[in-house]
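Appendix B: complex inputs.
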Amino acid sequence: MPVKLSAPAAVELLPVPGVELGIAEAGIKKPNRKDLLVIRLDAQSTVAGVFTLNRFCAAPVTVAKEHLTVGKGIRALVVNTGNANAGTGEQGMAAARATCAAVAKSLDCAAEQVLPFSTGVIMEPLPVEKIVAGLPQAVANLKADNWFDASQAIMTTDIVAKAVSRQIKMEGKTVTITGIAKGSGMIHPNMATMLGYIATDASVPQAQLQQMVKQAADASFNCITVDGDTSTNDALMLIATGNSGVTISDANRAQMQAAISAVATVLAQAIVRDGEGATKFITIKVEDGRDAAECKQIAYAVAHSPLVKTAFFASDPNLGRILAAIGYAGVNDLDVTRIKLYLDDVLVAENGGRAASYREEDGARVMQQEDITVRVELGRGSAEAIVWTCDFSYDYVKINASYRS
Amino acid sequence: MPVKLSAPAAVELLPVPGVELGIAEAGIKKPNRKDLLVIRLDAQSTVAGVFTLNRFCAAPVTVAKEHLTVGKGIRALVVNTGNANAGTGEQGMAAARATCAAVAKSLDCAAEQVLPFSTGVIMEPLPVEKIVAGLPQAVANLKADNWFDASQAIMTTDIVAKAVSRQIKMEGKTVTITGIAKGSGMIHPNMATMLGYIATDASVPQAQLQQMVKQAADASFNCITVDGDTSTNDALMLIATGNSGVTISDANRAQMQAAISAVATVLAQAIVRDGEGATKFITIKVEDGRDAAECKQIAYAVAHSPLVKTAFFASDPNLGRILAAIGYAGVNDLDVTRIKLYLDDVLVAENGGRAASYREEDGARVMQQEDITVRVELGRGSAEAIVWTCDFSYDYVKINASYRS
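Resulting structure:
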């Protein structure tokens, strides 16, 4: 069950002027399930995104990147679940292009103005005909107040829909930011996550929007992992419609970036809280390193260790496993006698071994919590990094041993 | 349950002249369990080893490396289970030295002539007094025909004891090689595995013995992974007593190396077949790469993917997960259109997608097997690498969520 995570209420999700969303049940993998989403954008909108670095990146990722560079302006995004259209070769590229062409025809724009996204099983042909057949339903359904249904339409193994809205005051006007995301397994984003869409009605030039989405991803989706598997389909998109009348400039960019990053962080953490089989939400902070890269390397080693993750599942303070993971993280000149390990506020290890003050019952108490922070002080610099992850339970195996059935 | 692996029969394990083994029930973690092993070597023996690269390497690993460099000749090895004496700081170093001193006193040699080894839970103080109290029982028990009991005495979460003997003819004489190993979880050796001991009665100078153990480890223990966790205590030791009267030279070194590597490979594969919760034994071959390093990097990415491992557990040919793992392995200039993926003899993917000839029932048939080979052709060179691993089951979680209880 998701860890301290409930679905957003529909009324909490604020429309973003300039954005309309339409949902359909296209029967892509199973019937009677929202599995197709069309997002229509006002003409003046800018769109930027970051995508997976997986070499087997999906056909829609390749096509979306192409269409972004064409520069005609993006008028629509189309997302299907039930099939990732990844590992599908030339046939998959044709299917992604056909999807864009069909959406373009429905909305009276060019195919290059449509960005396609897919998520689901890998290496199976995308049933384009089902998507095309479902489009009229999605287009008829287009409306601004549809973010809640949209967040449901992009779910796969997710238990809880992920969505959040924020409003900020800028230049005396109100700017809205609403975002949705999906993801639960195959989560180890490298540039972005499974699928995330954030829209604002501020006006942001394309180049700045690209910097903004990169920075937001680095502070959020690029800090999470469920199972260390980097998806073929990761994409985080940031949309700016400009309908609020507020234009982003040097004077207000930091405020806007902070709000975008905050929305991205809520969504990224929600993905971990809804991680496949998760029963604990674990924050791993590595501090006092020489650079952020080595801090992140160590944080990910701890976050990916099946032994650490199963100990958290069992609420067992078998914390030597964390030391072992720090030790094999690949930072080869690490002086282990300078390292301090904390579990929340409890000092667990120092001087290369268990702290004299450590008592098993203190470790056991923290391990019972649903939210736990592992803090590692490396004692060799001032850099730091953070990674959010979850534990490893029977249900992770169950979910992934039966995903296709 | 172990995958096609049964315990060796005691009679199959051949004594190695010059080596005696003694076992005790020292009650280190639990009572009534063989948990202490002493190996006594004839004076002319040479010993070489490879050890974990984990920065939190255990105190006994540090002490064993020290004692090997002293160069007085090694006369005994002492192994305890139930406690890893890792992450134990200065106190742990003192405990490892005290263990060596006690063994030295029992066997009338110097402490620097004893190599200590520990395996078990990390970051708990080693109960030296229990080891010292158990030593008389182990020493009284010393005999050449004791490899079977020795293989049991070093087990922790292992279900099946791992041991094998081989004999080869050299210069008209018989040379015996017998090896034992333990390990089931925290298996991703980096230089060696959890614990392995191989002895021969050939005569091998120290420097050559060191090359020989390194080469054997690279072809065996350094090709296996269960969970990607590199232990703090890995060690593979190779002992040469010389009692056969056969001396290794340039003329017969290749034959000896082949026999040693064969024994090491049997033991390494046994560890995977007895991997925690294993139901499948999976061989991952990556071929036609630019160099062995990139082949191994890709093989390990596939072997470590929880999604791939749970698909094997489910016998579900959800083989797109293998493509995803190849894609995120970190070989950034990989041309996925040149890659071919085979499951045993079934061509699964080529030209960036599913092979036209692939039929789901063929994949499903292979996935039902207990032994499966995943073969990846990269199509960009002639290097190759192999990794052996197992699947990821409910029982892995169960075993590791309850290890200390």
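The domain at 281-401 of chain A is CATH 3.10.20.340 (Ubiquitin-like (UB roll)).
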